[in-house]
Specification:
mainly alpha, 274 residues
């Protein structure tokens, strides 16, 4: 057993868990961490997607009461049915566009310029969203969403296919700009992450199964465990954070990180490629 490889897997798991649900792009941070650790070959890229499952398990546990009560109520509750349908509606656009354009995006958009631009523009969009008037909020809780609202959030999520954008950033900030409260947008982003990231992880493992063997099981297990633990801490912290704070700190972080992308690329320290 390669202990150094397991250590790298643990570090990558922590990076995934801490960045997946913050509006700062887990993909960008995994690329940087992988480059610094020398953990960036084709198998590592499959690993990066697969360990999202650990982070999703943390979300399921944090929101278990809501999820379990919704599932139990589905046969007889119109509210539960509407909530489940909204999550499904928001999930569908990413599936369709991902299957149609996923390869083209990886082949053409994973460049330092695109990644850095996405970070920086995303930062300014967050600042803009946080400065809107309170009167713009019309959806206080996820239960207040209509199917049209869910579809719009699902379409906004597709913007995250552009590297450096951030899936959680797109859905949370996009939801806020569409009239959702910060809490409602964050909650729905977490619910939507469950089918989206599980689907992406399963598809990646199936598509690239030829790269993997049973010898990789310990590496993936370590990554999943550390992704779960760090995501559990991060999600619980974020839910408390947004109750009294805005997302502006993440906006400035994105802008600085965008400059880091440009600097590391210019110096040849990181290859920002798919």
């Amino acid at each position: 057993m390669d202990l150094m490889l397991l250590l790298k897997a643990a570090v990558m798991g922590v990076v995934e868990g801490l960045t997946e649900f913050l509006p700062i792009s887990s993909t960008g941070h995994l690329i940087l961490a992988g480059a610094l650790l020398g953990f960036d070959d084709d198998k590592a890229k499959v690993f990066d997607i697969a360990i999202q499952t650990g982070a999703i398990l943390a979300v399921i546990i944090v929101y278990w009461q809501k999820i379990s009560s919704t599932v139990r109520a589905l046969p007889h509750s119109a509210d539960a049915q509407r909530f489940a349908l909204n999550v499904f509606i928001a999930f569908v656009p990413a599936v369709i566009l991902g299957l149609l354009f996923g390869k083209a995006i990886k082949a053409n958009l994973f460049t330092p310029e695109v990644v850095a631009t996405s970070f920086i523009i995303g930062g300014f969009i967050i600042l803009w969203a946080e400065r809107r008037q309170a009167s713009a909020v019309r959806i206080g809780e996820v239960e207040d969403m209509r199917w049209q609202d869910a579809l719009k959030v699902g379409l906004v999520q597709c913007v995250a296919m552009i590297p450096g954008t951030s899936r959680s950033g797109a859905t949370i900030i996009g939801g806020m700009l569409l009239g959702m409260s910060r809490k409602a947008a964050t909650d729905f982003s977490f619910y939507l992450a469950i089918p989206t990231l599980i689907g992406a992880g399963a598809y990646s493992l199936y598509k690239d199964r030829a790269l993997l063997s049973m010898a990789d099981a310990p590496m993936f297990a370590v990554g999943l465990v550390f992704s779960f633990l760090s995501a559990w801490v991060c999600v619980r912290w974020l839910l408390k954070f947004i109750s009294t704070n805005s997302f502006e700190v993440f906006a400035w972080y994105r802008i600085v990180f965008g400059l880091v992308v440009l600097g590391t690329s210019y110096l040849g320290l990181v290859s920002w490629s798919a």
